[in-house]
Amino acid sequence: MSAALFSLCVLLFCFGEGLSQTTIETGTRYVTGALQSPKPVEKGTYVASLCNAFKGKDVIVSVVLQRNPDWNPTFGVVNFTVTTAPVAGNLEASVLCQNWPDANAKPAPNCTVKNWSSTSDLYVNTMASNVGDVSFTVIVEFVKATSDSDIEKINPPKSMNLKSYIDAGLVYLDQVVHIDKPFQVVYGQTVILAITFCPNPQTTKNYRIDSTVFAMGPDAAFAQYVCKILPCNDRQNVIASNPYQLPLNSLSVSTTTADLTTLYIAVVGWGGEYDPSVHAYVGSFVYGASLTVQPAHKEKEFRFIQY
């Protein structure tokens, strides 16, 4: 391997046989799976199930208003607080951030929790304003911790009682794993993505993980292999694979025991555009994965009965 190609592989996290399999960290979002349309002043709680997997991350919580992108209070807004899950038997919870600086201020679309340190789930507790048509979606995103934040800093109360919010019903957010920008892979080389999913009471133990690699550009194609442990390649520790060289490479892996939590995805590059600076073909891809609940029982099979 030339010095230039080796440098490119180090820069792009390319790993061949016999080289250390350092993993690429993926981003994680929790989102509402459907549009939320509460009644005036109705409360609610949206839960991100975290399974103690995101400590040390910054958390950006956003509420996206439908038909009111400027957050004009006349059209209806949402006040929300971000807390840890309440401890059993005690509905008081620590408030980590909120989207308004004081009782009389206009709420904002988002707030940020710096350096998430809790081992519990994250709760987004909402209350719609007294307007008849308030619709929204919730996004909770875990990102690499930074020293400063562009989000306005506020001074929320120290704690709040969650009883009236929880009584309105818990909504468990859907988890999505992704990478923020395209990665490049030298022809025949591999990158390893590390992804974590957190089942919740709504998910139960019966679910599947859908994993998709999207090639960028006209000539790129990829294969993928899924493992529970490292090393992960086409011959070691594979529990699911799509070995075909495809510009859109998708697969699904299922469980009935909730044993699919942290997974490793080996993405192998095939094709791409020729890069004369490294004398090799280089392909780019983006990635996404999601969790889907499986039906508890198979649908009944109907048979034709002759008379």
Structure commentary:
With 307 residues, the protein is mainly β. It folds into two domains: 3-26 and 179-293, Jelly Rolls; 28-175, Sandwich (Jelly Rolls). It is built from two helices and 21 strands. The longest helix has 10 residues, at 3-12. It starts with a helix and ends in a 14-residue tail after the last strand. The relative contact order is 0.21.
For the structure shown, list the relevant keywords.
disordered N terminus; ten-stranded antiparallel beta sheet; 2 domains; Jelly Rolls; mainly beta; single chain; six-stranded mixed beta sheet; 5% helix; 307 residues
Could you provide a short overview of the structure?
The protein has 307 residues and is mainly beta.
Major beta sheet summary: 10 strands, antiparallel
Number of strands: 21
Q: Globular, elongated, flat, extended or rod-shaped: what is the shape?
A: elongated
Number of domains: 2
Order of helices and strands: HEEEEEEEEEEHEEEEEEEEEEE
Uncertain regions: pLDDT < 50 for 5+ in a row? 1-13, 15-19
Subunit arrangement of the protein: single chain
- Report the helical percentage: under 10%
Helix/strand/pairing class, anyone?
mainly beta
Measure the end-to-end span. Answer: 73 Å
Taking all Cα atoms into account, the compactness measure Rg is: 23 Å
> Would you tell me the overall average pLDDT?
87
Percent strand: over 45%
Number of helices: 2
What is the CATH first-level class name of the largest domain? Answer: Mainly Beta
> Which architecture of the largest domain would the CATH scheme give at its second level?
Sandwich
CATH topology call of the largest domain: Jelly Rolls
Keywords: Signal
Signal peptide: 1-20
